[in-house]
Amino acid sequence: MTIRQRSFYFLFTFLLTCATFAQDFEALQYRTIGPSRGGRVTTVTGTAMLPGTFYFGATGAGVWKTEDYGTSWHNVSDGFFKTPSIGAIEVAANDPNIIYVGTGSDGIRSNIIEGKGMYKSIDAGKTWEHIGLDNAGQIGAVEIDPTNSNIVWVAAIGNAFKPNKERGIFKTTDGGKTWEKVLFVSEETGFSDLELLPGNPNVVYAAAWKARRTPWTIDSGGENSEGGIYKSVNGGKDWEKLEKGLPKGLIGKIDLAVSPVDSKILYAVIEAPEADQGLYKSVDQGKSFTHVSDDERLVNRPFYYTNIELDPTNPNIIYSNANPLIKSMDGGKTWKRMSVPHGDNHDIWLNPNNPDLLIQSNDGGANVSHNGGETWSTQYNQPTAEMYQVAVDDQYPYWVYGAQQDNTTIAIPSKAPIATSPANGSVMMDVGGCETGPAIPMPGNHYMVYNNCKGRFSVYSKKTGQSREYSIGASNIYGHNPKDLKYRFQRVAPIHVSPYDPEVVYMGSQFLHKTSNGGKNWEIISPDLTANEPDKQVISGNPITRDITGEEYYSTLYSIRESKISKGLIWTGSNDGVISVTQDGGATWKNVTPKKLPKGGRVESVEPSQFDPATAYIAVDRHLLGDTTPYLYKTDNYGESWELISTGSNGIPSDYVTRVLREDPVREGLLYAGTEYGMFVSFDDGATWKAFQQNLPVTPITDITLFRGDLILSTMGRGFWILDKITALRNEKINQLGDAPVLFKPDDTYRYDTPWGGGDFPNYPSTSVIMDYYLPTDIKEGVSLQITDAQGKEVATIVSDSTQLKSTTEKVDDMSLSMTFVYMDEKLETKKGLNRFKWNLQQKGAWDKNKSRSYKNGPMVLPGNYTAKLTVGNQSYEQSFEVLIDPKLEDDGVSLSDMKEQQELQFKVIDLLSEAKMLQDKVEKKIKELEESKVGEAKVQHYKDILKQLKNDEGAYPEVVMVAQISYLYYILSSADKQPGQEEKERYQELLMKFNELKEKANL
């Protein structure tokens, strides 16, 4: 392609997509399916004035609130916060409506999300205002002056991945309108904590911490001059470093606690070399300290934990949040482990009026106790899971798989799992492996699941519940210096199943490994496919605390994909920025890393094209190196050259770290990108991007898969989400929307029997055919949607406004009840732009004198071909689609002919039920007419006797008579897809005969 041709191409695609980019995709809503099991919570707080109200801040899920002691939680930050990462929450002591939140989790793991400053609410979390400190990075603590809620202090750790000037102690005296940096050590040293002196908020203690993360290590602490405890007695104007009794050498993360009942007492838990580590106590407001305890549990993984809190009524009772949660009753001399719902503890808050009422947080969520920690509220009501990946199986409906950080792998259904379960019931199962994943169901046999657990490969059987480990190297690599390892497996080492053989599985260390028999035997099919720089193959944890969990294993493979259209064409990406490709199944390899890609980034995803074998896409993440630039690349020549398709000015913001890039399997050039802060879509092969966030909360998108027309996401903080049926996006008309309405072709839809009335979480919809349509203008009336079957018979007509419904002519032929089924549904939107309607497949039900129930709850249509006709004014647009039989029914021996026989009888029963209800209504009206005319008791009694045989008596446990008996027959006939039983057929004839007798007797 010449330069001139290329320029014209980009101009053409830009003009072509302008119409699309002007469209609002709000009609395409995501739904969450969970899990309900909580994720990591870094900060908690409450308010003494409202004892049942608590808040928690998660690492990737924002701020949540309960007003019923943790029985239920709801998010209060969605729609306001630029980041889901929360470091500290504080409620004003004298006004529970005033809340300050510091973003940026203070446990600086490699996957932490960057903070975006401070937020304030003056209405108890209903609305929020961003109040600055955008570049403070991770915030360790927020304190509000108890005498003046406009005076607020912030301890800013800073950017976790590079030096920055916005580290230090900040103070505002005007509620966040302006901030002053009142204490600063260096661009590498921030502050992890601060405390105000009870009774005198001008006295302030602050804990300095030098900290930085790189992909290969965690630096926590430094020389004594780079850390330690500082004190101000004049509101931050002047500071003194406290030294007497404190460590003189290396010093790391510090957390502070001041007793509310004795302000002389100050505690500090300090990361330091072994002889100096642990708890220090001052009884003279920091003039001198005594080393109280060197219990190693106090400084377990200090960069991640390190939090102490005092009982507000007793300075000798201390809680230490680490792994585990421990408690001291004697001022820190001895410690006892406390039982909590989950390990890896981060924060605790105790009600100052009743310290037995408390909230505590850990890697499993937040939990409330009324009895000092003897028992706790559940963590299974917090949809805040951090998921590393997403995969799906081939069940009907399909299940969604992934690994939850700090928990297990899980599989959860994409729709309500069984017809008899509650629609809002949360169902999940452990499928082997562990928190890191991935978990990949075997294609064609979902009972078998391939797993990784921190580099160890296994195969899990759902049938037996057993996990068979076939680890490559059969060696535990935990805690090793990576340079000494035979195979370097990252803790989230990738697994990929060949699209050509379900027993061929690839797994990555620094090499690509392959098994052809599900893991029993492995072979290496590549050289080292990483940069493998020796200076980065080191023991992690400097300069004080060793920390080697596998997160820090650098120069390992991080993504693997084999082409679906060219067997043996395999792409790999490493976590140190190397892209490699083989076209012959691993016999030969080529390093095809983009020349302009800065080195060292983590290749989060590789995506071979499903249209052209020479084309592939990559997403690279360099935020661990302090670079938040989005790096999405495309090649169309097997990696010989690459094009950057995330320029910072073509739709994806310049600081949105890219996590995953996937190509649509149906429409060439349709791409989906998941970033640190949400979703994007491109219709022109990456030339331009548009936000595709809709109702998704702001949270990192870690993985994307497309299956059966659905877009399925995993997130680092909000579990799994599904956008049902993206078919409209695959239609070229989506790029050409103009002055004419458009009805997009609906997806063929499986006819599942699902429960009615799901809740918001998990969002399990009832079966429906999703119909997308475009309207060029707002239309007040005259929009309808008609559904006809293969014979052209009208099944249902849905109208958009009650005016049209009232004017609809009801066609009745004698009593055959062949009335046209027309109903109004407010969800048939008539607003300008893209709209979505979900037709529930229902046909006409029985008549009822209550108009809101009349003709509703009929049977679902049978599998077959149908046509949708959208009418807008005097224009109509048609699209065909198919309703597919649930494959599980065929497996159970239920055939389409069985279902047809069932539906014929259902409609006979519906007609009978309608006639019986109408007769009941006529008899009731006749009785009223006779009573008013006072013609005599004998005539009235005649109809009362008939009514007694039609309608159940009032009161408890009445004898069930005609109308209710017919309703019951319809219920048992419709409870499942089946061939009708002989008893049902005979019962219908019996009821029909009895009804005809009553009808003749009534003679109305």
Structure, explained:
The structure is a single chain. With about 1000 residues, the protein is mostly beta strands. The protein has 7 helices and 65 strands. A hairpin with a 7-residue loop joins β52 and β53. The chain is globular. The model is unreliable at about 1-20 and about 805-820 (pLDDT under 50).
Structural class: mainly beta
Helix coverage percent:
10-25%
Count of discrete alpha- or pi-helical segments spanning 4 or more residues: 7
- General form: globular
Q: Which spans have pLDDT < 50 for at least 5 consecutive residues?
A: 1-21, 807-818
Spatial separation of the terminal alpha carbons = 83 Å
Number of E strands: 65
Query: What is the mean pLDDT?
Result: 93
How can the largest sheet be summarized? 6 strands, mixed
Beta-strand content bin: 25-35%
- The radius of gyration computed from the alpha-carbon positions, rounded to a whole number of angstroms, is 33 Å
Short description:
With 1004 residues, the chain is mainly β.
List the helices and strands and how they pair.
Layout: H1 3-21, E1 31-34, E2 41-46, E3 54-58, E4 63-66, E5 74-75, E6 86-91, E7 99-103, E8 118-121, E9 129-130, E10 138-144, E11 152-158, E12 168-172, E13 180-183, E14 189-197, E15 200-214, E16 217-220, E17 228-232, E18 240-242, E19 254-258, E20 266-270, E21 278-282, E22 290-293, E23 307-311, E24 314-321, E25 325-328, E26 336-337, E27 345-351, E28 354-362, E29 365-369, E30 391-392, E31 399-403, E32 409-413, E33 439-442, E34 445-453, E35 456-461, E36 467-469, E37 495-497, E38 505-508, E39 512-515, E40 523-524, E41 542-543, E42 557-562, E43 570-574, E44 579-582, E45 590-591, E46 602-608, E47 616-621, E48 631-635, E49 643-644, E50 658-663, E51 671-675, E52 678-682, E53 690-691, E54 701-707, E55 710-715, E56 720-723, E57 742-743, E58 749-751, E59 769-775, E60 783-789, E61 794-799, H2 802-807, E62 822-824, E63 833-839, E64 864-872, E65 875-885, H3 887-891, H4 896-933, H5 937-950, H6 962-974, H7 982-1002
Parallel strand pairs: 16-41, 58-65, 61-62
Antiparallel strand pairs: 1-56, 2-3, 3-4, 4-5, 6-7, 7-8, 8-9, 10-11, 11-12, 12-13, 14-15, 15-16, 15-17, 17-18, 19-20, 20-21, 21-22, 23-24, 24-25, 25-26, 27-28, 28-29, 30-31, 31-32, 33-34, 34-35, 35-36, 37-38, 38-39, 39-40, 42-43, 43-44, 44-45, 46-47, 47-48, 48-49, 50-51, 51-52, 52-53, 54-55, ...
Helix pairs in contact: 4-5, 4-6, 4-7, 6-7
